[in-house]
Give the backbone structure.
Amino acid sequence: MKSPKPDVDAVSGSLAVMQACASEFAALAQALLREPTADALHDYRISLRRLRVAVRNYCAASSPPLRPALLDELRLLSQQSGIARNWHVFVDETLDVLAKEPSSLTITRLRRAAQKQGEQALQACVDAISQPAFMRVIESLRELGTAEAHAMIAGSGATLEQHALKLLRKQHRQVRKLWRQRTKLSDEALHELRKRFKKLRYTAEFFGPLFDEAATARYVKQLKLIQSHLGHLHDQSVAQQLASDPALTQADAPAAALVEGWALSSLRCDRERLATLRLGHSLRPWRH
């Protein structure tokens, strides 16, 4: 992605970022279609998350703010791919890890059932990409970048740098507010915090070149560290839920109970470490 120019208007600059993300997303969707693997799914999901943030930032640049139905379509795609991702991570980072632990129970049948669920969820993602509805999403993304669409937008008159500064300050405040309560948050609230970190991180990556790049790199590095830990917490929470899925309990109820207990124990340990992490409020690159 080319570095945006700070003096370009907010709408044009945000549009350029969104178009770059849309091109990457379309390419990675086709890659998943050609070769439906866990790695391809991972790349597709990252590009989808980045695109959703870019579209939101573009919508916020207009006056009055745009709220395209496209965001709902992207959210549904994200939810669908998230199901497949959860099953694959459950197998790789919970069942395969637990299989190495000394235990009187084997989890072979449980793993086989989980793999089947993951394969079915992945196929559902591939099927969705093959449908006309997906191509309409791609077309909608392209239409946002047409001269006709651009002409209908009444920009706020702000430069891209001013728009980026407003977004980063707002998103950082939202993250920081919830971050202060992190030791008391429910699993659902921690997941919301994780999503806010992703949104802030991608926005910082998109617009970081407008500010001090070295400071941005330090800031993004800290965001990634916390996001990674929150991601691990989320995976343990999901593992606890998936272990009680009927497909698994029917395959091997004792092994499923073992996995559920192990995930709960890991979740508690990781929650304790969360209190020791620091957001690094002074690292904000727009302060330099």
The longest helix spans residues 213-242. The chain has a mean pLDDT of 88.
